[in-house]
Amino acid sequence: MPDSSAPGPEETPSPLEPGSAGENSAPEPRTRRTRNLVIGGAVVGVLALGGAGAYAYTALSGGGAQPHDVLPGNALAYARVDLDPSAGQKVEILRLLQKFPDLKDSIGDENADLRELFIKNTFGEDCDVDFAADVEPWLGQRVGMALLSEPLEPVIAVQVDDETKARAGVAQLTECSDDETSAIAFLDGYAIVGPEQATVDAAVAGAKRAPLGEKAEFAQALDSIGDQGIASGWMDYGAIMSHPDFEGLLAEGAQASGQPPVEIPEMMSELGAVTLVVRAESSAIELRGTAEGSGNIYGDSTLDVADVPDSTVFAAGSAASEEFDGWYESMMTESLATAGIDEQTAAEFETTMGVSLEEIFSLFASGPLLTVGERGLADMGGFTGPESVGSLDVALRTHGDQAELRDIHERLAEAAAMLGVELVVEDIEGGVALATAPSALEAGAGLTSTEAFRSVVPFDTVTSVSYVDFDKLQPVIEVFAEGDEAVVKNLEPLRALGASASGDEFSLRLSFND
Q: How many domains does the chain have?
């Protein structure tokens, strides 16, 4: 493969200015108003959903090298974004973005250049770069990122049409970000950007010897995706968790934040490859994937959402295996010690409230499901909250030994009564629920029967779920928007959001109103 790397030893390479666009994930767009933060969170998430925030990769039509052809096989994670996807996918994503009033005019028609939108949303309006003059002449259609195993650092592969202009252009974009100085090299029509010149040069050399695209497990994962939609990615999760430098990075981060190091459960290190794909539809965008071995976390347990009220606005819960439950309780106990809550303080809490902290934690390791209903939301008093907790439908469903759970819930209800809050305790199938009112447990037709829920949760049975119905949440949005009609209007297109898992499969799906 032809390449153009950094200058040799006899020359002095010119590193890019501090803040390369290629190091780590792209920074959030710079905003000046609260309104833009709210709107941007909903809108930019549609464009970059596959990154879960940062990067994603897509299958591309057309020939030529792909990013995985110019990145080394020692990569532990890989992501790619196609800035000129297939016509169908491009039309769908642009139509979805055009539903937001604040974006409709700036996006233009279905022939809009996604590369310009990518640059604008990555570097923000404050970036003093003219796309047509400074970026378009050199920027290609494909961008990829890899997390290397040795060293444990990221590198970016950006398809370019002109290496000289690309070197200057990347340096110019660097000035718009806050990253450290980065280095650059070129290989087979791509600019390879990383934190250090040695890292970049090693990545290029590694890609020449054994590119990621020829790695067997990566190729198999790529084939398993099927229709690769607008974005997709791959990560060897177990290898990352068990990497000798990963624990050190966690320790460094903990030391910098003044917190104790995070202990990674052994079960997490046993996970295999994570493969994901992002697809756009006429009324939804979805991140769908598989995580090998994640089903072991839940065992044979499933989360029953059929009896959850059809008026539910928010729901979040997870089934779990005994192994996971044990780790969770152990982690919470350690967290108490870290927070300075010693045995005496815990005992005083139990004496006052009638229930121990350990018992409270046990509820959240018993297949919990928290739900919030629609009743009373329209009368919310903004940040001051409702006049009475009983005016809302909030319920915590827990599963396990009913006698033990009922005992804990009844003592919690007694403690709440001392504070003037009346709660109800009811037996449910396989467990016990604590609720603000009986209506919070009246299923009606059931949540799974609603079109909003089905639009964002694709599985018949789930092991975990988080769900928000934006249409039913509209009264709350209007209250907290505090008269800002732009915020309300830009959230109106959203119908529902769901994050769910079933065994090894998972989905993050955002649906839109017609």
A: 2
